Amino acid sequence: MQGAISFKQLTSGDKSLFYPNTIRTPFNGTKSSDSKRRSLSLSISAVSQNATNPEAQDALKRALAKKAVGLVKPGMVVGLGTGSTASLATEELGRLIRKGKLKDVVAVGANYQSRVLARQFGVKTVDLNDVNNIDIAFDGVDEVDLNKNLLKGGGAAHTMQKVVDSVAKECIILADQSKVVLQLGSTFPVPVEVLPSAISPVLRRLVTLGGVPEIRSALRKDGPVITDLGNMVVDVSFPNGIQNPSELEKNINMIPGVVENGIVSGVATTVLVAIQDGENVIVMNLEEFAEIISGRTGASSTS
Ligand SMILES: O=C(CO)[C@H](O)[C@H](O)COP(=O)(O)O
To answer: Which Gene3D superfamilies does the record associate with it (predicted)?
Structure first.
């Protein structure tokens, strides 16, 4: 089959990674772009070996942060997500503001930690309820599929992240290559924020949706994780896979007592994917990444 790829599932610790393993046929296109793409495809295969290396992953996240913050213009209201990748974007935003390159920029932090970080890096924060709109939002992701469906909530912050991301005119999702999956739920369960007083009936209803729910436990506290909003988090795995993310997102949110779940469909306007090409880090749009791994023509990097 022309352009066929094979995907190999790696397991590292508790996290399985899908990555394009081999591209069996050459890309179409001009000779020079052909060889460029072929060498890139080889390195995509190679970077998978580095995907679990924290230093390599950090370099990918920094490149994403830089690329994303390059889209901010003076006077904008910026939404800030949570997690290590979004934090690097906040750091980069602060750097440009302090250098005087981005005047009159204010930020809406999706949660407590993103507001603390913003202040730490010299980014002025405002309350979501005090702005009419958000121009651009940056957020990380635990998984993203090739249709820009997201899985979030690894940091139990997905409820307000979803609010901020969906208010923003441009929602830019920052994904290092390890985050791209063929099907949501491949490497992470679906986090569901639940009112503590409704936990038992919600657990029963999640089972009827085909899920295997587990209350998330705190690491350095006895008992469950309690979110910024005072709720519990249930991590739900779906052994039969998630065929229709947007339908599952709606069905979970229909359960009384559920505050919000970590599937986010139809919100991301742009997904930036970072890969390592030998010594270089390359950032490209998800569409370009998808073209490369499907062996179609027209893929090129954006940096
Ligand atoms: O959804 C989130 C937190 O609830 C994060 O965006 C997600 O967990 C990704 O985090 P990181 O950038 O550290 O990999």
So the answer is: 3.30.70.260, 3.40.50.1360
- CA of residue 6 to ligand 1 center, whole Å: 27
Residue nearest to atom 10 of ligand 1 (CA): 83
Spatial CA neighbour of 264 closest among 179, 187, 166:
166
Separation of 175 CA from ligand 1 center, angstroms? 10
Say yes or no to pLDDT of 224 above 60: yes
pLDDT value of residue 213: 98
Provide the pLDDT confidence category of residue 169 given band limits of 50, 70 and 90.
very high
Query: What spacing in Å lies between the alpha carbon of 174 and ligand 1's midpoint?
Result: 10
Q: Is the CB of 295 under 6 A from ligand 1?
A: no
Predicted pLDDT at 198 = 98
Mean pLDDT score, 145-173? 98
Residues 6 or more apart whose CB falls under 8 angstroms from that of 156 comprise 191, 193, 216, 225, 227, 228, 233
Domains and CATH numbers, the chain: 1-185+262-303 (3.40.50.1360), 190-261 (3.30.70.260)
139 CA closest ligand 1 atom index: 6
| Cα 18–chain centre separation | 15
Ligand 1 test: best mutation among 57, 85, 229, most atoms within 8 Å of CB?
85
**Contact indicator for 27, 295 with CB cutoff of 8 Å:** yes
